[in-house]
Each structure stands twice: as C-alpha cells, then as structure tokens.
C-alpha cells in the first residue's frame, strides 16, 4: 500500500459515458471497503484525502495499521464514531473509459428506504455476498428490492474470496444458489465475480490467486457493462415543468424529455386534455434543434395556441400515456408515521401533483420470503401492492415502461415528509381510453332480478370443524327456497383454479386471494356465495372482506376446539400431520387465527350441523339477503 | 442518453449539440431540470452567487434553463468584506453582462464590531460574516429556496446531503431527517418560514466543472490562473496580500510567487497553490496529475468545526 506505486491517473477528459451503480450488502459484507478499494486503486483519491484517511484509520479505524476504507464513505460524524453507515452516500470516480457515480447504502436500519432511494437512479446493482456465508436472507431481500425498482443488470460480487482459500467450489456453489433464487426476479444479466475488497483480488485487475475465474475484474466489467437506459426507444414524453413566456412573442414549454424522441413537425398531444399541436421549434440556449431525445432538457414551441400548463404531459399523439384517476402500484413506505388509509396525500409523478388516497387493505410483501399478506396499513420500510384513488385524472405509464413517467412519491400533507415511493403497475380503469364495460347492468340490477341481495358467506375454521358440512346444508336450504347460490369449497378449488398451489405460507395466501376474487365475481353476478375455506390468517380474510361492498361479507367462524376436530378426524389428516407426513398443517404446526368479531360464530359442540344451517338461514334473512325490501326497512331502524 | 445524432435529420446543428460529451450533457440536463423544478414550485427563489467557478457554472446553467427568458430570480452575494478585490469587480461585471438583479448583503452587526479573520479568528469570522449573514439575508428578503453551487465530491458530509436540502425556520440542517430523493422527483413542499437549499450541480466533480467551463467558454476570475502574486506563508498556507489589512511581521515582505487559487473565498483564509497553469488547458492537465483536493487550501475546513456542524448551523 505504499504511496509511490501510485502512478498519475490516466486523463479522463475524453470520458464520454457515465454509469451510476448501487452497492448492496449486509453490515459485514465489506461494501464500504470495496468502494474504498475502487477509489484507491483507480487513483481517485487525493493525497490530502489519503492523509486524512490514514490519520482517521489510526484514530477510529478497524483495520489495525492498514487503511480503513470504510471511513472514506462514512461521512457523517455519527457514522464514523459508531462505525456504521446511516445514509445513502454518493461517491464519484473516473477511469480512462468511464465515469462512475456510486450510491452506497447502509446495511441495517432504514435499509429498504435507503436502498430504494439509491437504486432509483442506478443503472446497475452490485450485490455483495460474503463467500463464507453464501446467499443470505439479506441477499434475497436486496435482490428483491433491486428487482422491484427495475434494475435489470446485476453484478454478484462474491467478496472475501481470500478467506475461503480462493476455493472455486465455494464460488460455484454460491453462484448456482443465487441464480436459482434469482430466476423469477427478471434480471437480464447476472455477472458473478470472485473478489476481495480487502486484498484487492479481481477488483481492478484479475488476481493470480483465482486462475479458475475467466472473466473481467469488477472494474473492467463496470467499465463495459451496458448502462441500460432504454427510454430513448419508448414513446415520446415531456412532463411540462415551466411555461416559458419572456415576452408576448414567445411561448414555450420547458422540460426534460422523459422518453423517446421528438422532431420538429411531429404531432403531439397534451394530457390530460385533448389538445393536439405540431412541434414548431425545439429551443435550447445553444441553438434550435431539429430533433431531441430522452434525457435532454429542451423548450418546445408549438404551431398553435393550445392550453398547456405546468404538470401537463406532452406525448406523441399516436402513442399517448395512460390517463386515469385510479391506479395500481407497488409502494415502499418511507416515513416513520404509518400510512393512514383515510387520509389524502400529495402524489407527485413527473411534474404533476394530485391528491391521492391509498385504498386499504394493502397486500404487503415480506421482502425476506416474498410472501404476500393483507394488511390494514403500511409502516416504515414496508413494501406493498396497493390501489390508489386520485382526486383528478393523472397521465402516466407503467413503471416498467418508463421510470420517469411511472415512478411517484407520496407526500404527507401535514409534515411535508416524503412518505412513500411508488411504482405504477397500471391504470385500474382507463377513464379516457376505455369505458368500463356493461355499466348499464349493475350488481344491484342482477341481484334484484333474482329477488335477493348478493352476499359472501365466508366459513372459516380448523380442518374438520364442519365448515363444508354446514355450508352444504345451508346451500340446500337456500336452493329449496328458490335462491341463487354457489358453494366454493376449498378442497374442490384445489383440484382446479388453485391446483398449482401448495401449502406454504405464500401459497396459502394466494389460495385465499383467488377464492376471494372468485367469490367477488359471483357476488357481482348477484349470487349468494358460500365459501368454505380454512383461511387461517386474519389478514387474508380482511383482504377478502375488503374486496366487497360493506355489508356483503359475512364471516362465519365454525368454532370447533382443536381437540374435538382432531378426535373427529373425518379425513384422517390430523393423524398424518401428527405423524409428520403432512407439513404446515393448521392447528398442528401452522397457526390458526380465530376471527375477533365474526358476523356469526357457530359453536359446533352445542349446535348440530342442521341447527347451524338453519340459524345461518335466519341470520341471512335478518340481514335482508333473502328479501331486499326487508333490508331497506332494517337499515332505516 | 442517445449518441444518435448523425442521422440525416441532423444537419448544421449537430456540431452544437455534439460539443459536449455525453456525461456532461447528462449532468447539464439534470442541473437544468433541478433549476426549473425548484423555481416552478417555490414562490421566492434566489441564487447564491459566491463568485467562484462553481457559481459561474451554476449561473450559466440558470441562463440556459430559462432561455430565451432570464432566470426569474435575483442573485445574492454575501460579502464578508474580506473577499479578493478581483472577486467584487468580477461579480459586478457579471451581473451587468447577464442583466441580472444582484443583491449584496453584509452582516451589519459584524461590520459595526469590525469582525474579521485577523482579529477574531477564522471560526468567528466565518460564523458571523458568512453563516449568520446568509441567514440574515435569506430572512430579510423572505427567500424560500436558495440555489447553491455545492458539489457532493467536495467533502464527505456534502456527499450525503440531498439535492433539495430542507432547512427549518432557523435554517438548520438535520442530516438524520433528510427526505428520501428518488428518480428525478424532488419534494419541494415546505411550511411558511421554512426553506430549501437546492444544489443543482451536486453530481458534478471538480474536473467536470473545469471541462464545462472550458467547453462552454464561461468567464471566471483570473485568480484561478497562475501569475506572480505577493505571497506570505501562514501555517503552511500561501496567502496573497490582497490589501493593506494583511498584518505583516516586522521586516516581513511579501514574496512574488507563481500562484493560483483552486477555490475562492476570503483572501486571508484561502491558500494558493504554486503553479504555472495560466490557462484552462494547463489547469485541466494539472488537475489530472494533482495529488491534492481543492479544499486543501481552505483554512476554514481546519478550524476545529467540521463542515457537517457548520451546515447544521445554516452554513451553505
């Protein structure tokens, strides 16, 4: 590490391209050390910075007499004192081939928030794995977030390869594990490189200690990897930032082109309005341009006077953006204050700011396992799929098609905090392009034709509690009374609609979700739907309830004590579960969360199945399901 | 960004468009975007003009952002009365050349008490004449957003500051409560009395600034170029004797040395570097073999309080 081996850096003046990347790893993976090594070995550090580093390394470093590169990146006082990284740090370095901006993000608290922030502007992600530990929960979490933010090129840096004796078998196993895990994440490229941030192996130059590794060093790879900014090939988009009107003779619309190209003479449309015009000039300080493309800051002058203001989206007339007041999105919650689904937030997308409400419940993804569960709110660092209702139509694209017209933030109206980052999946109904079909025949109309009110009677309870027996009896009773019904039975669904699902936590959630969606469609058709499903988790049942209009979801807890259900063991399943032949069996090695306030609770140790069905029939009658006129009467009391 | 400019549609404008390399065009566009965005969303912005090379680039970018209009905000210089004389002349000439409204503020109390670096030390001088003066000026005019030319590569705590940096009513920066900044989306919302500092050239490096100055032909003070100057040494720093207020030891006479400045500030606090670089080519060539950072000559960075603590207190 002697200073004198450092030759002056190659002149980077001719550098013309810029790569932004993010490094992800957990606390001890050696991220900061690797970045420090890149800066040091690419000669991007000045002598006075090195002197400071040497002094700091002695004072607070963790590397004995050696330089502690982590101190280069940890800029805030608290970080240096505590040896942690608190915030996203941006570092800059250049080689003769390329310039780099690195976002380094901390590996502990606030991780999700900081990682998504750093990744939002990154072209490539470098994911660090400690060769001694292999693919960890953290690795999976980082990779899911990187994938969520739409990064498609990943470098897998298997770090501390020196500490496993440069063993190719260790490297190969980790890479194989990672590729198997990452297969569904949609990465276009995973480049795996064995490195040692501390020793410098394969960081700048290929190491003699890894002769089995045929490939570029980390820096060589970063110098040549595709930056992957494909927005130029997308349809033209210009979010209007500024209406430029210096005098009566000039009226231009300024903004950064967020997608595609524009030529003088092209026809554009201004969303959310209907106005179309032809581009007369593309103005910049340097000169008028005949053509401009994504990433350029320009001012457009149009051939005619049409209404354009800040916040409008100028688009190619032949491929406009989506326009809707309701959208589905993935969001990452970033505020200490949890989501309040009743409240309106500001939603800023491009240059548009509108009022927005997140519709509860939300489907929260566990970033460690990938499992999805319904939840009533969102807390710091949660990732979820949500529906968002807006107070006016918004012009946008799906995030996967354009980060700049599909990424948004939610702002708390009281604190002004940036509460969440969001990525649009799509419009829930395109209020401009597509009319919602068959609006003339409503759910009410369909139900009225049948002389009933639609309802979903949701039977939950342990296996063998008697759900299907009671549901079956109730359906017969309703059928004989001339009602239009359908029974969705959990076991039967698993033979068809849910035939691809197993019994893992994630599959169970999906099992319930599909049943709930199917029930919703049937209720919309005017039917009285009986659903018989163990559905052990409250959150899943809350999701089902949330799909339906208030009052249509009737939760029936078929309450049979575990001992009693196990004693009956009609299908012999408890015996198998106790013998370990069935895993994740509810009540045995998987929990059952009883409803806290079901509409109806049936204690099967007191009521016979027949009596239970009769009681339910009466309950439906009282709720007006069987006689809409009575319902109106009931509700007014 | 596309390099696709050689198609048949291009023509004579291609030369203009290709003058900047792709990385600088990307940085330029980002900076223009930030200038427009903050200006559109805040009611009373100002550009803090410190007369240095970064300010020169920032001002040039502001001229571009609102072309053919002028930047719809004034420029503000906080004058400590200890700046290099050339800086003041250059400042007035630039404001005139560009046709911009120039506001100059000096802390009246500091002036009345005769605060200066020689009598009060660099820490007190910087606090009273720069930090407090800046806060006074922002309050006086009610500015709710102030553009500055700070860059993330300058200093470690700046590397962690947002492009849009929220300040409380007391102008304080809380590094642990910064708003996440995603994509090109900036949250500029504030309550009455609060303000923003906006740093459009956050992602530029020192070398980017010099390359841009050269390619865009941006005027800068000649202090950046080497020439023989009257120099005394103070604690290893090469200080230029810019006026008669510089105290000299008995028998001490300033020596003429070939010196240039990598940053500009208060002359008693700004150390020069020995150099023969008398033009931009030479400066850029020198930078590429330079082994020290630009803040090396800054006396105030070594006065015991860190940049982080100065920033928390409202320093730019």
Overview of this structure, please?
Helices cover 27% and strands 27% of the residues of chain A. With 637 residues, chain A is of the alpha/beta class. Chain A folds into four domains: 222 residues, 3-Layer(aba) Sandwich (Rossmann fold), CATH 3.40.50.300; 86 residues, Translation factors (Elongation Factor Tu (Ef-tu), domain 3, Beta Barrel); 106 residues, Translation factors (Elongation Factor Tu (Ef-tu), domain 3, Beta Barrel); 180 residues, P-loop containing nucleotide triphosphate hydrolases (Rossmann fold, 3-Layer(aba) Sandwich), CATH 3.40.50. In chain A, strands 7-15-11-12-14-9-8 form a seven-stranded antiparallel β-sheet, with no helix packed on it. In chain A, strands 2-3-1-4-5-6 form a six-stranded mixed β-sheet, with helices on both faces. Chain A has a six-stranded antiparallel barrel with strand order 16-20-18-17-21-22. In chain A, a hairpin with a 4-residue loop joins β11 and β12. In chain A, α11 packs across α17 and α13 packs parallel to α14. Chain A starts with 17 loop residues before the first strand and ends with a helix. Chain B has 316 residues and is an alpha/beta fold. Chain B is built from nine helices and ten strands. In chain B, the strands form two sheets. Chain B has a six-stranded mixed β-sheet, sandwiched between helices. In chain B, α3 links the parallel β1 and β2. In chain B, α2 packs across α3 and α7 packs antiparallel against α8. Chain B starts with 12 loop residues before the first helix and ends with a helix. The N terminus of chain B is likely disordered. The chains are: A alpha/beta (637), B alpha/beta (316). At the A-B interface, α2, β2, α5, β8 and β9 of A face α1, α2, α3 and α8 of B.
